Amino acid sequence: MLDCAIIGGGPAGLTAGLYTTRGGLDNVTMFEKGMPGGQITMSSEIENYPGATGHISGMDLMIPWPEQCQRFGLKHEMSEVTRVSRREDGVFSIQKSDGTADEAKSVIVCTGSAPKRAGFIGEDAFFGRGVSTCATCDGFFYKNKEVAVIGGGDTALEEALYLAKICTKVYLIHRRDTFRSAPNTIARVKAAENIELVVNAIPEEVFGDAKGVNGIRVKLQDGSLRQIDVPGVFVFVGNNVNNQVLIQADGSFLCDMTPWGEVKVDLSMKTSVPGLFAAGDMRAEAPKQVVCAAGDGAVAALQAIAFVDGHQ
Ligand code: FAD
Ligand code: NAP
After folding, report:
1. Which residues of 246-281 are buried (b: 16+ CB within 10 A; e: fewer)?
2. What is the pLDDT of residues 103-137, one digit of tens each?
3. Ligand 1 mean position, distance from CA 40 (Å)
4. Among 156, 82, 111, 32, which Cα is nearest to 293's?
5. In order of start, what are the domains of the chain with their CATH numbers?
6. Between 11-22 and 64-71, two packed helices, what is the crossing angle to 10 degrees?
7. Interval between CA 214 and ligand 1 midpoint (Å)
8. In the chain, which end has fewer C-beta atoms inside a 10 angstrom radius, N or C?
């Protein structure tokens, strides 16, 4: 039986693997369905991981992480986990897509999340070259420039306010004229001098050239097109949390979740189920940053060690 099963091999899972093994757990396996490294490996540049100076891609950042963990004994299994369940005796079952299963005393779930795409022309082609889903990651690249934000929920409005502090102007493009966001956030957005609301506007196309995005065209209510010339377009139209592994045979979740599908954790990354921890982008109120996911993974690992040792 595994001392700890880690599900997902992004920054959270790899850090959990480092801390569990180096902290003395003998039998730890990290299950990752693809290559380890997580979603940051899709980024061409990361500027905000502490100590990573110079031009460094997400892939460059993550390449040494698996080797460092393996040095302390972390086993890596390239498998897709389909379900994590817990028997009455407290042992966890890790079921995999090939039909096999493993048993574990503790589990750290680190399966991440993925922003939804809006579906306009050019969104995929210019992703990472002007189209972004992360203001904290990429906002700085547009310092003293104009940007567009798409969406009308809490995330879009909060990120528009964040960008308005860095950029000269933010066009907030929303397909309706009422917002889903909290009333005080809407009030702050409306009061911001450098946020222009572009409502009843459906994003049609992001356009640009080899250097990146030059602007976005939106269709207005009367059918006309408006062109907004900006080098950056931020898309916040919802988020898919990779929480499928926690769904049980009866459709319920193994542990308590937020209404929008994130795992509820305390400050120790403990879920509502003893021995089950969650870390990184899939947990509630995650800042969705590599440094934070790594920090979560370390915290969860220390708790998993204490749990396996019977100190919890
Ligand atoms: P992830 O990195 O999403 O890793 C989850 C892993 O779990 C994946 O490898 C996935 O394959 C695996 N997995 C999922 N389900 C299963 C399953 N059922 N079985 C087995 N494995 C599974 N952050 C920054 O700090 N700075 C930046 O500049 C920055 N830029 C970004 C740019 C882009 C384009 C993207 C997409 C993200 C960026 N981020 C940035 C955010 C950062 O990548 C995430 O916050 C971070 O990767 C989250 O780590 P995680 O380990 O929680 O999840
Ligand atoms: P969301 O609430 O689902 O909002 C998504 C927004 O994107 C909506 O305004 C939607 O328009 C728009 N949209 C969806 N698909 C689109 C498309 N294809 N093209 C153009 N626009 C599109 O998502 P979210 O803002 O990420 O929030 C998710 C959950 O987290 C919410 O429950 C939210 O309250 C919560 N959250 C809370 C906080 C906080 O409390 N501080 C912060 C962030 C998120 P319509 O409105 O027309 O559907």
Report:
1. bbeeeeebbbebeeebbbbbeeebbbebebbbbbbb
2. 999 999 999 999 999 999 999 999 999 999 999 88
3. 5
4. 111
5. 4-115+239-310 (3.50.50.60), 131-235 (3.50.50.60)
6. 20
7. 28
8. N
